[in-house]
Amino acid sequence: MIQQEAAVPASFELRFSPCDQLISIVRRFVLSFYGSILDDEELSSQLALATHELLDNAVKYGTTPTAELAVTVIPEGDAHRIVVSIRNRAELRHIGEADRIIRELQAADSIFDHYQDLLHVAADRVDGSGLGLARIAAETRLQLTSRVDGDVIEIRAETQTPLKRPP
């Protein structure tokens, strides 16, 4: 049984070498884990999607074989804040690109319209689609932020929601 009173209930951290095969496994784990905890199947799916996209970025753009994934549930009054974060090293140009995309999403009047514009731009890109982070913002209710420290980037996707009450 999950203890709701814990400071950080139903949270986990993974430090591992992400690869294409592990992305799907971790996505299924997140979907199953949070599907049993949240009273919201759609949000569980959104957390799984965000996890998939963040891990995919770590695989494609990471400069070391390790990344740190954390999914944290933080009690805040009657709600809980849920944060999916990935932290890894990357080339400065990729960090700058991710940071720019997140800032543009935060500034957009309509994330959906901005995502549509990015879809058109992606059609002409040679190096990746550049759509993963925008997909998180457009297809989920998670808000993206980033923090950069030299060649390390942490990207966070977060939202607030009530959790199921224990029986």
Layout: helices, strands, pairs:
Blueprint: E1 12-16, H1 20-35, H2 41-61, E2 67-76, E3 79-89, H3 92-107, H4 111-122, H5 132-139, E4 143-149, E5 152-161
Antiparallel strand pairs: 1-2, 2-3, 3-5, 4-5
Helix pairs in contact: 1-2, 2-5, 4-5
Report on the structure:
- The protein is α+β, with helices and mostly antiparallel strands and 167 residues long.
- The protein has five helices and five strands; from the N terminus they run βααββαααββ.
- It has helices spanning 20-35, 41-61, 92-107, 111-122, 132-139; strands at residues 12-16, 67-76, 79-89, 143-149, 152-161.
- Strands 1-2-3-5-4 form a five-stranded antiparallel beta sheet.
- Helix 1 (20-35) runs antiparallel to helix 2 (41-61).
- The longest helix has 21 residues, at 41-61.
- The chain starts with 11 loop residues before the first strand and ends in a 6-residue tail after the last strand.
- 29% of the residues are buried.
- Mean pLDDT is 86; it is low at 1-8.
Structure summary:
The protein is 44% helix and 26% strand.
User: What structural class should be given to the helix and strand makeup?
Assistant: alpha+beta
Question: What are the secondary-structure elements, in order, as H or E?
Answer: EHHEEHHHEE
Helix content: 40-55%
Strand order of the largest sheet: 1-2-3-5-4
Distance between the termini: 9 Å
Total strand count, please? 5
SS strand fraction = 25-35%
Major sheet description:
5 strands, antiparallel
Unreliable spans are: 1-8
What characteristic shape results from the CA principal axes? globular
Mean model confidence by pLDDT: 86
Q: What is the CA-based Rg, rounded?
A: 16 Å
* Tally of DSSP helical segments: 5
